[in-house]
Design a protein that fits this description.
It is built from four helices and 13 strands. By secondary structure, the protein is of the alpha+beta class. It is globular, with a radius of gyration of 24 Å.
């Protein structure tokens, strides 16, 4: 009886410790990523099938310890309605032209500081493409790769889209408004904050 009682106490102790460890591991598990929602109510995590945190001018916060990426959407006509004089397309549609000329994306995190980091991702079949979304084709390198977690505090990221030749969106004939490249093209700088806790 005494041995049975001891065995029962030991078994109960193991159960309590196991439950406590399980509870602490569950509470330490990362919270779900907060989705990035555009001002027009588009969920970018859903649209681009991205499970990591997304940084954009309208999504300026990331939880610490999270990998993250940047949204740099480019909207195009579904066909070449208008193009600048001398423009030579490399495909039947603006999105085909984009894919043919797009080399990749470069991110410069905290540029000009001692924390500066540079990441570059080449274009491949994972490039985010949405066809005919409310009359536009959209491309976003958001799907090409994610960046390492950053320290808590304020940060900046510059995004550069890199092209082998000039690409145009088929919407107009003004190069400054309707075309990208050749070479590196700076998209808007995004300021964001890494919050404590994950």
């Amino acid at each position: 009886m005494n041995g049975f009682f001891r065995a029962l106490v030991v078994a109960f102790g193991v159960l309590v410790v196991g439950l406590a460890v399980g509870a602490s591991e569950a509470s330490a598990a990362p919270k779900p990523v907060q989705h990035c929602i555009t001002p027009t109510s588009v969920d970018l995590n859903v649209r681009w099938a991205v499970s990591e945190a997304i940084v954009a001018p309208f999504c300026p916060e990331v939880a610490s310890g999270r990998r993250w990426t940047v949204s740099n959407a480019w909207f195009m006509n579904t066909f070449f309605q208008v193009v600048p004089l001398g423009f030579v397309p490399a495909g039947a549609t603006p999105v085909d032209d984009f894919k043919a000329k797009f080399i990749g994306v470069k991110y410069v995190v905290d540029p000009g500081t001692k924390q500066q980091k540079i990441y570059q991702f080449p274009s491949d079949d994972s490039l985010g493409v949405v066809l005919n979304a409310d009359g536009f084709d959209i491309v976003n390198p958001i799907t090409l790769g994610t960046l390492k977690p950053l320290s808590v505090g304020d940060h900046v990221v510059d995004s550069y889209l890199i092209f082998s030749a000039m690409h145009c969106d088929g919407l107009g004939d003004v190069v400054a408004d309707n075309c990208l490249g050749p070479g590196e093209v700076l998209f808007p700088t995004v300021e964001f904050t890494v919050l404590p806790g994950h």
